[in-house]
Specification:
Elements: E1 3-17, H1 21-36, E2 45-48, E3 55-69, E4 73-78, H2 84-91, E5 101-105, E6 108-111, H3 124-134, H4 139-153, H5 168-179, E7 186-189, H6 198-214, E8 217-221, H7 225-231, E9 234-239, E10 242-248, H8 249-262
Parallel strand pairs: 4-8, 4-9, 6-7, 7-8
Antiparallel strand pairs: 1-3, 1-5, 2-3, 9-10
Helix pairs in contact: 3-4, 4-5
Bound molecules: adenosine-5'-triphosphate.
Length: about 260
C-alpha cells in the first residue's frame, strides 16, 4: 500500500554569509516584523544558524509531521514562502533533510518543473526521442510517445524547431505533454500546471485528471482554491514552515479563506 510518513522534518537554507553585524541585524528585524502579523506573513522564519554566527538562514520547514495513506488527495496551501514547494521537493527526493524521518512506499513522479530534463538546443521532437531512449522504450513505444506528445502539445511547425526558440507557454505545452506520460503510484504536483492559455488549460485539465485518477496518492500545491476543493480530500495549511491546520478539505479551506479575508491588503 502506498504511503508517505514524515516525522519532524526540518529544512533550512543559508541566505547570508558574512559577519556584517548591521546587515544581519536589519535582516532579522525586518523578517521578525513580517512574521508578527501571522496570516500576513511572507517566507520562512529567519535566524542565525545554530552552527555559525556568520550565517543567517531561512527555516523553510520546521518539524513537519504527517502521514498520507493510499487513496488520499492532499492539497498544500499557505502564503508565499510558507514552505509548500520545499515540502513537495523533499517528498520528491530533490532536497535531502538531515533530521527527522521520511518514509515513502511507492514510486513518486513530480510535476514540478515543466522544462526538467529538456535540452533547449534540441527540437521538441528530438527531446521526446531522447526521453524515450533514456527510458529504454522500444521503437514502437517511442513512436507512439512522439505522436502522443506532438498531438497533445499542438505546437505545429515549432515541434521541429529548437526548444530555445519557444515562448514560456510553448515550453510548458511540451514539458506538460511529456511529464504527464508516466503513471506513478504517488503523484506530486506544483501549480505550474495552471500555466498556458485557456484552451490549453482545458485540455491539460482533462489529461491531468486521467493521471490523478490512476495515482494512489496525490499531493498538489496551488493557490487555486477551487481546484483544490474539486480535487482534494484533505488540505495541509502551511504557515512559515509549520503546519497550521491539517484536515478535511472544506474545513481547512473555509478556515484558510476566513483568515486570508482578515489579513489587511
Ligand atoms: N533554494 C532556496 N534558497 C534559499 N531559500 C529558499 C530556497 N527555496 C526556498 N527558499 C525559501 O524557503 C521559504 C519557503 O519557500 P517555498 O518556495 O517552499 O514557498 P512556497 O510556499 O512554495 O511559496 P509560493 O507560494 O510563493 O510558491 C521561503 O522563505 C524561500 O525564500
Amino acid at each position: 500500500m502506498a504511503h508517505i510518513r514524515l516525522e519532524d522534518i526540518s529544512l533550512s537554507f543559508p541566505v547570508l554569509h558574512g559577519n556584517s553585524r548591521s546587515l544581519k541585524k536589519t535582516l532579522l528585524a525586518r523578517a521578525k516584523s513580517t512574521m508578527t502579523a501571522k496570516t500576513g506573513a511572507v517566507g520562512g522564519r529567519m535566524r542565525v544558524s545554530g552552527n555559525s554566527t556568520d550565517v543567517v538562514e531561512v527555516q523553510a520547514l520546521i518539524n513537519v509531521s504527517f502521514t498520507i495513506s493510499e487513496g488520499e488527495r492532499v492539497g498544500l496551501v499557505g502564503h508565499n514562502g510558507a514552505g509548500k514547494s520545499t515540502l513537495l521537493r523533499v517528498l520528491a527526493g530533490i532536497y535531502e533533510t538531515g533530521e527527522g524521518l521520511l518514509d515513502i512506499e511507492g514510486d513518486t513522479h513530480a510535476l514540478i518543473d515543466p522544462s526538467a530534463g529538456m535540452n533547449r538546443e534540441l527540437t521538441g521532437r528530438e527531446n521526446i526521442q531522447l526521453f524515450a531512449c533514456r527510458m529504454g522504450m522500444s521503437r514502437m513505444a517511442a513512436l507512439e510517445l512522439e505522436q502522443d506528445v506532438e498531438t497533445f502539445s499542438d505546437l505545429g511547425a515549432f515541434f521541429d524547431l529548437p526548444v530555445r526558440l519557444y515562448s514560456s507557454g510553448m515550453s510548458v505545452r511540451l514539458g506538460f505533454a511529456l511529464a504527464t506520460v508516466p503513471r506513478p503510484r504517488i503523484l506530486l504536483m506544483d501549480e505550474w500546471f495552471m500555466a498556458g492559455d485557456q484552451k490549453f488549460q482545458d485540455k491539460a485539465k482533462a489529461r491531468l485528471e486521467g493521471m490523478v485518477d490512476a495515482a494512489e496518492i496525490l499531493v498538489v500545491t496551488s493557490h487555486a482554491l477551487t481546484v483544490l476543493r474539486e480535487w482534494c480530500t484533505r488540505i495541509i495549511w502551511m504557515e512559515s514552515g509549520e503546519i497550521r491546520m491539517d484536515g478535511p478539505t472544506d474545513d481547512v479551506l473555509d478556515a484558510y479563506e476566513a483568515a486570508v479575508a482578515l489579513t489587511p491588503a
